[in-house]
């Protein structure tokens, strides 16, 4: 077995570092410079620290910290040491973190110092042996402990099928599932994208990526970071997205990746011009539908055609509009073609293939598709077909030329500013509030976030409910992006013959509620 090359994703990323390790790898928006040597040595020190903890095979390293280059180094170190990275959205509050840590049973938890007071007891309760802190000002106990370790480290040997990361994705019944992604899933996808999106080797001028997404989800953590690292490309690193600042830095960059909200906000900046984009090679959008209006406005203003792609936590990237015009044009409203190696099919309710552009359920397979959900074998079985295709829960069609269009979702999901919100989770919280008989949460159009949640709530007989109090109650318990933007107390909800709430009707009725 040891004769096989090391399939550890870190080994592939490290092999792409430029020969001159003193060159700049990451430049933060506030002017800090990190060389490739800093990434190499910093990840070695943390990997040595993890090794010294004597963790068991497959140990999970759960991380809820603000975005920083040190957090990126922690990710690299976790891969390097052969452990499983488990990133958590910084917006999650204690009840949410309690669930993730309880479910994942991480060996190590890394959190912000300001949260340690409540994270530490949760971690200890779940049997976690090591809790470290990491802040976005290069401080915290993790770096203090790592500084006592050496800066040379041999990359742990891993097979393609070994788990590299667990990404929690909300479940339709309200409880999140941890999608396990292997070194092989992540590496194969990154290699395909390097080629498909034409990342430029240094000899051809190289690339500079503006990284302005959070690093706790697939888009910012895998697609963007792996893209740059696997090409040995510099990143301009924003700890938080700021449309004005990003537009100001465009003339130093060549690649940008964002969710549609980022494009909407940049279009509102008067300094976004063709001239500002003169060095840019590629703008990529994904994680949520890009409105055709945004696609057209961007082309008109900048002269660039946004490349829209489609993916998910369980599969990393699945489809992409073409980079190369030889393969076809980038079509607004579509997510392009299945990536090389990805099989994507559309089937009807009977499981029959949809022919001639008919709409159906999207199913996928390929080296990028995850092996299953963490400790949920039954859920995993349900989500795969008998012949091994993963049911995405997205509804779409494939046209005669092969372009895939997502037309909706069979899963009851709201995508708000690129974050997923599962109505069942919000409804569950509302239904537990005193005086509430029932609730329904729906997604409605929103100019900035694309879609936002609206809650419809029915009071129990004799109870009086205040919409603002309901929203405040949710804010105290849930990550802020999950809190509906509006709440209405209603006397009834439309139902079908089976008694099921008809959310399609509600979405129509409340279409303009959040505009
Ligand atoms: C922030 N708020 C949101 C929100 N983000 N509300 C709904 N949806 C969102 N996405 C709310 C906050 O609760 C707060 O409300 C107010 O807006 C301001 O908060 P903020 O923190 O200042 O917002 P901002 O920093 O401007 O964040 C907006 C954003 C961010 C668009 C930059 O949401 C973001 O980075 N989104 C990207 C998500 C992402 O990376 N998705 C990839 C998933 S991977 P209040 O009331 O508290 O003031 C995936 C697979 C794939 O899907 O295909 O890629
Ligand atoms: P997540 O669970 O956060 O990984 O979100 C994945 C979901 O985001 C997919 O199943 C799609 O519903 C949606 N998605 C990702 N990219 C796109 C896109 N380009 N257009 C429409 N929906 C998208």
Polypeptide structure, described:
The chain has 15 helices and 25 strands. The chain is α/β, with parallel strands linked by helices and 515 residues long. Among the domains are: 9-19 and 35-192, Rossmann fold (3-Layer(aba) Sandwich), CATH 3.40.50; 334-409, Luciferase, Domain 3 (Luciferase, domain 3, Roll), CATH 2.30.38; 414-509, GMP Synthetase, Chain A, domain 3 (2-Layer Sandwich). The protein binds malonyl-coenzyme A and adenosine monophosphate. Residues 169, 218, 286-289, 308, 310-313, 335, 392-394, 406, 409, 415, 420 line the site of adenosine monophosphate.
Which labels suit this protein?
29% helix; GMP Synthetase, Chain A, domain 3; alpha/beta; Luciferase, domain 3; 4-stranded parallel sheet
CATH fold topology of the domain at 9-19 and 35-192: Rossmann fold
Roughly what percent helix? 25-40%
Structural class: alpha/beta
**Which hetero ligands occur in this complex?**
malonyl-coenzyme A, adenosine monophosphate
List the total number of helices.
15
Question: CATH-wise, what's the superfamily of the domain at 9-19 and 35-192?
Answer: ANL, N-terminal domain
In CATH, the architecture of the domain at 9-19 and 35-192 is: 3-Layer(aba) Sandwich
The poorly predicted ranges are none
Concise overview:
Helices cover 29% and strands 25% of the residues. It has helices spanning 9-15, 36-52, 69-81, 94-104, 116-125, 141-146, 183-196, 218-230, 243-249, 260-267, 292-302, 377-383, 423-431, 467-477, 503-509, and strands at residues 24-28, 33-35, 60-64, 84-87, 108-111, 130-133, 163-169, 177-182, 208-211, 234-237, 255-258, 282-285, 307-312, 316-320, 337-338, 343-347, 360-365, 372-373, 390-398, 404-409, 414-416, 419-421, 436-446, 450-459, 486-490.
